[in-house]
Automatic annotation (TrEMBL):
Its EC number is 5.3.1.24. This is N-(5'-phosphoribosyl)anthranilate isomerase. Pfam families: PRAI (PF00697). Keywords: Amino-acid biosynthesis, Aromatic amino acid biosynthesis, Isomerase, Tryptophan biosynthesis. CDD domains: PRAI. Residues 20-223 form the N-(5'phosphoribosyl) anthranilate isomerase (PRAI) domain. One of its GO terms (molecular function) is phosphoribosylanthranilate isomerase activity. The gene is trpF. Belongs to the TrpF family. InterPro entries: Aldolase_TIM, PRAI_dom, RibuloseP-bd_barrel, TrpF_fam. The keyword Amino-acid biosynthesis applies.
Length: 234
């Protein structure tokens, strides 16, 4: 069991609300599908090599439809201040997701500069990787656990690869996080049963091609989540 005694975050009861972030949105139609399904968070990717990249001003236009419905998350990886300034100014995110090798010091700096909550992404493949949480405790507002990128991948996330969710079983219940990496309608039941996460984050699993979100797959994912939760409550 990984104990994080000093980690005082407002963590939802695992049995209650489940946050769901649909990430890598680029169109009005797919954003509408995410909101219709009940997404708590919608994510926009600001990583140039990603097929999901969106310009900050366009993300700012898109995210207006989510105001009052879902939190808009700006996803970056090792971005510099100038780019972050532009994103914050043009998109007005509710939260920043830092998906690179940002240090605790850099996360502290970013939080102070923008006054926004930060979700720190950490790559996981085995239980020992969860030790990486420690230096960010009291700094990051939330964690996002993603699979390690495969060799040769140019993307730090959005690779559609899952890790062994059983490693999360030993995590302290006070750690607020989103589970991500390779989730889809077919495997979400197992992910919920094995990890019982407070939040989910999905991208490739609701796409018909890299970077192309499919409203029908988004709807199917939400249906699968509801079915899995109904089954476990029964
Ligand atoms: O999606 C991307 O292209 C991306 C680029 C740079 C940093 C993070 C990125 N995506 C994040 O990774 C998760 C998991 O993606 P997947 O479901 O395995 O495809 C995604 O939800 C984003 O938070």
């Amino acid at each position: 069991m990984l104990f994080l005694d000093s980690f005082a975050v407002s963590c939802q009861s695992r049995a209650m609300a489940l946050d769901i972030k649909i990430c890598g949105l680029k169109t009005d139609k797919t954003l509408a599908a995410a909101l219709a399904g009940g997404a708590s968070h919608v994510g926009f990717i600001f990583f140039a090599k990603s097929p999901r990249y969106v310009e900050p001003a366009e993300a700012g236009r898109l995210r207006e439809a989510a105001i009052g419905k879902a939190k808009a998350v700006a996803v970056t990886a090792d971005a510099g201040d100038a780019f972050l300034d532009e994103i914050v100014e043009k998109m007005h995110p509710d939260m920043l997701q830092l998906h690179g090798s940002e240090t605790p010091e850099r996360v502290t700096e970013i939080k102070a500069r923008y006054g926004l909550p930060v979700m720190k992404a950490l790559p996981v493949s085995e239980a020992v990787d969860l030790e990486r949480i420690r230096p960010f405790v009291g700094i990051a507002d939330r964690f996002l656990f993603d699979a390690k990128p495969p060799k040769g991948s140019e993307l730090p996330g959005g690779n559609g690869i899952a890790f062994d969710w059983r490693v999360l079983a030993g995590l302290d219940a006070g750690v607020d996080y989103m589970l991500s990496g390779g989730l889809n309608a077919a495997n979400i039941g197992d992910a919920l049963r094995l990890a019982d996460p407070p939040g989910l984050d999905i991208s490739s699993g609701v796409e018909s091609a890299p970077g192309v979100k499919d409203p029908a797959l988004i709807e199917q994912f939400f249906r699968a989540v509801r079915a899995a939760r109904d089954t476990s409550a029964a």
